[in-house]
Backbone:
């Protein structure tokens, strides 16, 4: 078994692991997820475990523990034979690690969610972004192709690939990427199509529009806003610095979107699918909804800071997910205002805990734990 969590001191360590395999005669499906520690990785893990899967996740080495989003799922393999989620060290920049884990786990399905996923940061580290997002997908496809059994492959594509193509964007809309991140995702998209055509692999591209949740990284605009709403409401900060407020996005709930990933790999034939709510809102509308929900006026708090503007912007995204709705029978359950409420409620609770620590003198209000 893999992935040890030393529960005695609250730390969790992923041990160098031996080869895990389902018990003989066990018909349970096995999935391998890259990017398991990210927002989508945690929701997809919950989704697959609820369907009876054994889930293996590849995590990268970090100087701090990076498994916080999985803590509630984690079962210490020392204490329980029931651990159905196992973690292994690998990196999308290291082909040998990918090949080794694919070969030893021999999953039925591989979900490639790992990425340097921040669009603005991709302008700062373009070379690294291209390596992990673009070439990383190619490395993983190659590992899957060379495995001694057929494995179904999911590629986490993005609406950012459409870039400046006007909405509504569907599977047939042209790509016009506007960032190193988006260009690398376009490369990963075409690698996936090419492996499907060249090697008859069951490989699918999900072209997912923005999806958010209480687990969203705190430097994406929605979570940055809802975290600030919680902290402003509790008196822990007064200002929120943002960039372009006029960009429009099609924002859905991450929990709904991981279901679509799974559905793509359950079809008779592989394909590419746009996944979207088909409703678009500007960043300003998100501000209005989030601050308004907490009884605040965003105009009293938001300050525009040039540093958050991007060298090239994606102005307007709104998906046409007709294909996913008709073929996969998928549709989103959580709408825009419910999503905003879910995120603000979560972040008000976090702010309340921070407030207790600040009041007791254990935390500086500028700090975020
Ligand atoms: P996150 O940024 O939350 O998670 C990214 C994951 O990739 C993390 O687990 C991260 O590890 C891991 N990772 C980063 N670099 C490497 C590397 N070099 N090797 C191995 N793992 C690495 O992203 P989301 O969960 O939001 O998104 C999942 C995928 O879907 C990404 O590919 C993203 O680009 C794509 N996508 C996301 C959309 C969205 O709206 N959320 C929309 C469309 C596509 P660590 O935790 O250590 O940082
Ligand atoms: P995006 O998400 O670039 O769409 O990529 P993000 O939340 O970063 O930006 C959305 C829009 O908000 C504007 N914006 C700001 N963005 C951030 N991060 N911080 C700010 O302060 C700020 N102010 C304004 C941005 O300019 C942009 O227009 C996300 C990621 O999850 C990608 O990995 C994924 O592929 C796409 O969604 C679909």
Residues:
């Amino acid at each position: 078994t893999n992935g040890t969590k030393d529960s005695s001191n609250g730390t969790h360590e992923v041990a160098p692991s031996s080869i895990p395999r389902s018990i003989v005669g066990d018909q349970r499906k096995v999935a391998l997820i890259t990017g398991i520690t990210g927002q989508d990785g945690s929701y997809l893990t919950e989704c697959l475990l609820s369907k009876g899967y054994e889930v293996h996740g590849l995590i990268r080495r970090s100087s701090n523990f990076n498994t916080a989003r999985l803590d509630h799922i984690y079962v210490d393999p020392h204490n329980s034979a029931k651990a159905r989620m196992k973690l292994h060290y690998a990196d999308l920049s290291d082909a040998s690690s990918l090949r080794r884990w694919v070969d030893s786990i021999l999953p039925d399905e591989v979900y490639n969610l790992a990425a340097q996923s921040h669009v603005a940061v991709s302008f700062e580290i373009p070379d690294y972004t291209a390596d992990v997002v673009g070439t990383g997908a190619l490395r993983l496809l190659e590992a899957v192709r060379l495995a001694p059994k057929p494995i179904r492959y999911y590629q986490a594509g993005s609406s950012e690939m459409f870039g400046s193509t006007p909405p509504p964007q569907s599977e047939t809309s042209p790509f016009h990427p506007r960032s190193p991140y988006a260009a690398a995702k376009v490369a990963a998209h075409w690698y996936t199509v090419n492996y499907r055509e060249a090697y008859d692999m069951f490989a699918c591209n999900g072209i997912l529009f923005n999806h958010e949740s209480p687990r969203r990284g705190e430097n994406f605009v929605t979570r940055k806003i809802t975290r600030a709403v919680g902290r402003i409401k509790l008196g822990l900060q007064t200002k929120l610095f943002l960039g372009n407020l006029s960009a429009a996005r099609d924002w859905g709930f991450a929990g709904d979107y991981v279901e679509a990933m799974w559905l793509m790999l359950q079809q008779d034939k592989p394909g590419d699918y746009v996944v979207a709510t088909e409703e678009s809102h500007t960043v300003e509308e998100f501000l209005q909804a989030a601050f308004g929900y907490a009884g605040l006026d965003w105009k009293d708090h938001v300050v525009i800071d040039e540093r958050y503007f991007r060298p090239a912007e994606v102005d307007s995204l709104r998906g046409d997910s007709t294909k996913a709705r008709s073929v996969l029978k998928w549709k989103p359950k959580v709408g825009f205002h419910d999503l905003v409420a879910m995120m603000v409620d979560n972040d008000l609770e976090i702010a309340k805990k921070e407030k207790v620590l600040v009041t007791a003198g254990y935390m500086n209000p500028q700090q975020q734990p």
User: Anything to note?
Assistant: Residues 233 and 294 are 7 Å apart (CA to CA).
